[in-house]
Amino acid sequence: MTYEIKTFKDGQVATKLLDSGDLHIKIRGNSYEDLFKIASIKEAWDAQNTLNKNVTAQLTIYCLIGQRSDRRFNKNESFDLKVICDFINRLNFDKVYILHPHSAISLALINNSEKISHFNYVKKAFETIRNPVLVSPDAGAYKATHEIAEKLNADLVPSNKVRVDGIPQISIQGSVKGKNCLIVDDLADGGRTFKFLAEALKQQGALKVFLYVTHAQFNYGFEELKETINHVYCTNSYKDINDDFVTQYQLSI
User: Which of 42, 118, 145, 198 has an alpha carbon within 20 to 30 A of 161's alpha carbon?
Assistant: First the structure.
């Protein structure tokens, strides 16, 4: 099904359906405006298909807004991911696909949801670099990176950032001497953490250090990243990046 979306000067969005049939919305989903676009499309489709039980509505979100706010961090603060997921649930999609969610909480909160794996994108980067050592940047990323390493028959080196007397220190649990490394993570808000990890890997003898992130936000620290990272691989789930330093895998947005 195809449709047109009009955005008014005050931010209002409105949808016009151009045909009929099954609905499959594919959208970045990284803003509240995107959520209202989804709601506008679905409302128009629901009105057209009130009595039609032979059609289905699916939603693919490539970069779920609020996915890192997967708990109530402090007393008296909002649980933002729950607010977002409740909004999506009220739209009653038959299936909701989420690309590489930050945690399983997103899938638990969204009805009829299913994860889209980032494996194929990591595989492309892995093959381009020619069999680097995979590096998980923290404990949270280890399980997913371990699963990918097994599928690729790749070496895996865990790392973690700990604080000693209030000072962050990076521990690397394995040898990277004389090897190329590929750090694998879900999201980069800024580049500073990866910059320091790459620096630590090179201090331990790594030849080159590359970075793969599915959701390349880079709201800060992007230029700093170039000081220690040799190249970045990512999807365009969050935004398009025009820079020779970055290879982006294009999604059907």
Answer: 118
Task: Determine the topology of domain 119-249 in CATH.
Answer: Rossmann fold (3.40.50)
Measure CA 219 to chain center.
Answer: 14
Token pair of 159 as six digits: 């790392």
Question: Domain residue spans in the chain?
Answer: 3-116, 119-249
Kindly state the percentage of the chain with pLDDT values over 90: 89
Pair type for strands 246-249 and 231-235? parallel
pLDDT score, position 163: 65
Record the tokens describing residue 87, joined without a space: 């909004």
Question: CATH topology for 3-116?
Answer: Rossmann fold (3.40.50)
Q: How far apart are CA 159 and CA 178, in angstroms?
A: 18
Residue 76 and residue 244: Cα distance in Å, rounded?
44
Residue-level pLDDT at 135:
97
Residue 166 scores a pLDDT above 90: no
Helix or strand (DSSP H, E) at 199 = helix 192-203
Which of 216, 219, 224 shows the shortest CA–CA distance to 197?
A: 224
- Asked if 20 and 48 touch (Cβ cutoff 8 Å), the reply is yes
Tokens of 252: 């059907």
CB–CB of 85/50 below 8 Å? no
Residues making up the chain, counted from first to last: 253
β-bridge pairing 167-172 and 156-164:
antiparallel
Contacts of 207 (CB under 8 A, 6+ apart): 178, 179, 180
